[in-house]
């Protein structure tokens, strides 16, 4: 297998983009990624696009061809493939691109992610997202996505010493980071009080424990490591690309509060990269809800089960802590256009490893990790990137 | 959900019909026709669950999809049935009263409807059993 490097990145500003269509979003992300890698469309061998539910959000399927066409590549007839794994669609899109290059099948490959969520109302959006869980045996009886993660939180808080204030600190920290990220949907810092005074969505989770509904797109370009310097002075190596699956329903898991797919993908990634959690300088985890960041920090092996709340309250995961988590603002503050999130995580880590993150830069960052979850943990993609 | 999609699961949704493997005694809900533990030496037959169990974890849903919005706030829980399998279900009682470890039993209820003139979906909710 060939070693793979990221040679170009881009991400649209995230938010409620009433003036932008699905096509506008991915064309903007794709063309900026090409510019970043000093490439033209002629150089692209293949494309992958992560997208959860264009069928529900804009009533459009066949996204692979659409994205190639509107990127101006229809006359080149390159392979262009949509990848879907709910909220992990972006992470899997990146992994498919890495596999294509590592295998020797392709050289220059685009991994994109895009979601246009605000063209339907909140109720329709909540229902589309519920399709990431089991429609027959969870959604049918009235389970919502916040409701499922709320049941993780209830279980977790009954077994481990996590306080409501520690949980709120996850959102406070991610908003602080988001306020330093120009593409973030939310640019304002909040306090623990902001979280605790927001309305309940699914007990114990409140509005400010939840990631928002977001429009956005991101794109990265991968190439063989031995060719990377043809395109960029700052190639970032892909040290591990791993993926794991678990039961589609939350109720069938071995342990409600542990995402075994995160444990599996994380352990495989550390083994592949031949490093330990201590060597990770920063990590982007899938904080669709505050409790999800707590579980992710533990399940990836950064601390023991039950300790992540204290770690967060003590500032270990803050920008100036020993293990900065979600420097982008995470899903909570940067926004969560579901299919684009996994690619945005790679964008953030590469930006940091290049030293281009300005007000939220982690000085001397050499190795970073991404963690992207589909559903309540039925799919997990983990990547380790290094300079 | 289309009429056929709902109708074909009526035995499970109304009457908790699952399966059990006679070789190892493991119960399945929703039903499986193949035991993942015994594989080809398994002997899987139909089984009607008693409908009794215990709350494993729970929440109160306050923002729901359109079909469930008029029910909010409602209690949702993961229930471990006495035979072993876990299911997700609504608990019918004041939502603040639901606690981990609470015993519950199944009851036939209206679940949702497809608008004013669409299909009415029935199924099993759970009530306190203490």
* Order of adjacent strands in the largest pleated sheet of chain A: 3-2-4-7-1-8-11-10-9
**Oligomerization state of this entry?**
heterodimer
**What is the CATH superfamily label of the largest domain in chain A?**
Thiolase/Chalcone synthase
Global shape of chain B: globular
Detailed description of the structure:
- The complex is a heterodimer of chains A (387) and B (130).
- Chain A has 387 residues and is of the alpha/beta class.
- Chain A has two domains: 4-121 and 214-236, Thiolase/Chalcone synthase (Peroxisomal Thiolase, Chain A, domain 1); 143-205 and 238-386, Peroxisomal Thiolase, Chain A, domain 1.
- Chain A has 13 helices and eleven strands.
- In chain A, the strands form two sheets. Chain A has a nine-stranded mixed beta sheet, with helices on both faces. In chain A, strands 5-6 form a two-stranded antiparallel sheet.
- In chain A, helix 4 packs across helix 13 and helix 7 crosses helix 10 (290-299).
- The longest helix of chain A is centred in the C-terminal third of the chain and has 17 residues, at 338-354.
- The two termini of chain A are 19 Å apart.
- By secondary structure, chain B is mainly beta.
- Chain B has a domain at 51-128: OB fold (Dihydrolipoamide Acetyltransferase, E2P).
- Chain B has two helices and eight strands; from the N terminus they run ααββββββββ.
- The longest helix of chain B has 6 residues, at 10-15.
- Chain B is globular and about 50 Å long.
- At the A-B interface, helix 5, helix 6 and strand 5 of A face strand 4, strand 5, strand 6 and strand 8 of B.
